[in-house]
Amino acid sequence: MATAPELPCHAAATSFDAAQAVVRANCAPLGIEWVALAKAGRRILAADAVARIDSPRRDSAAMDGFAVRSQDLTSDFTRLVLRAESVAGGAVPPALLADTAIRVSTGAPMPAGADRVVMHEHARVEGGHIIVPHVSGKPHVRPRASDFAQGTALLPAGTRIDPRAMVVAAAADIEKLPVWRQPRLRVLVNGDELVPPGCAVQDCDTIPDSLSEALLLMARQWGAKPLGALRVMDRVDELRATARMALEDTDVIVIAGGASDGHRDLVRAALTPLGLRMRFAGVAMKPGKPVWYGMIGGIHVLGLPGNPTAALTTARLFLAPMICALSGAGFDHALRWSERRLLHDVPAGSDRDQFLCAVADRTSDGVIIIARQEASAQMMLARADLLVERRAGADPAAAGASVRCLPF
Ligand SMILES: Nc1nc2c(c(=O)[nH]1)N[C@H]1C(S)=C(S)[C@@H](COP(=O)(O)OP(=O)(O)OC[C@H]3O[C@@H](n4cnc5c(N)ncnc54)[C@H](O)[C@@H]3O)O[C@H]1N2
Ligand code: MOO
Hints:
EC 2.10.1.1, Molybdopterin molybdenumtransferase, molybdenum, Molybdenum Cofactor Biosythetic Enzyme, Chain A, disordered N terminus, 4 domains, alpha/beta, molybdopterin molybdotransferase activity, 6 helices, 30% strand
């Protein structure tokens, strides 16, 4: 992979598509580890999950009632001798003799010879007998392995373990699963003005760091293992020392702020001695022009612009797919674009690819682009549930036209 040319990032030398392609080409799944089922939630299967047992394990009752032989039910009110009982978790009862029945609970093993369960509300118990009407229709028996048989691949590699997949894996009697390793991720924010949320009110020269927790949360949402955020001052030595520490236990470092030209030198000065190899710096996109990406050894370093909407937009477009690629879900898993109809006219696109904060209409497939787009804005993120793509040089579009949208 070629390193990026030494251009100032305001030149935005790399197209958005080329920048995404660079990240895609550099990010392969990190490796496989075996985890207990209890820890496998949200992880991505690295191999098919195969059933270790049949389900059901035996021919079983599907209803509470009486196991009978259909051939015995010759009249409208057949009288059968009631014998043993079979319950879920109990041993297989002895074979059913002619003109007898045994009580069964849902899930209980069926006795050999029985081919039907009469639901208890359809039969009448009289002493040691039951009176059974003529029944037809569903036999209410679940044959052995009728759901799945031992050896069947139940969950294909690539499945994310959600509650539904968890049912299947547990039902297959699986105790441990092979999953892709989660990328460990640290966030570094830099800026002398930044303080932890809750502390800015005391000092009007400060502002709350609004990115650390948001970026960690986004990372977790897409499958990373966030290790925390580190806040540093705008100083090369501090930035270098903190980055050196972060390099010891992470797969991905996200650096927010200090991405544009004046500051980038600071970040580059701090990280170059640590072995940073830049892949791109400056992308023809709006917002997010200063975004950059490089590697230190095998560790991915993504630089986001400090302006919060620009930071979150570039994180959504580069970090989310990076995490998906590293964690085995695939780069495109985070890039499920869909078409929606504009509910208003929009002007022609700018000279860069634009990614606009927008609101999905709840009652239609419509979308409303938020009127004032500012890379430094924060309030609009409270309602922006979509990013709308407007390619560089796009023609003006009228209400009703379709645009590509990504859940934000
Ligand atoms: N002469 C130029 N100036 C700027 C350019 C340029 O090309 N030439 N690019 C502009 C663009 S586009 C953006 S975006 C910003 C990005 O700047 P940096 O990445 O260097 O970020 P900072 O200067 O550190 O901060 C910008 C802005 O964001 C605030 N910030 C930063 N981190 C946080 C945080 N964790 N929480 C809340 N707010 C944060 C910071 O206080 C600044 O207000 O540069 C333009 N300038
Ligand atoms: O592109 Mo900056 O990221 O617009 O504010």
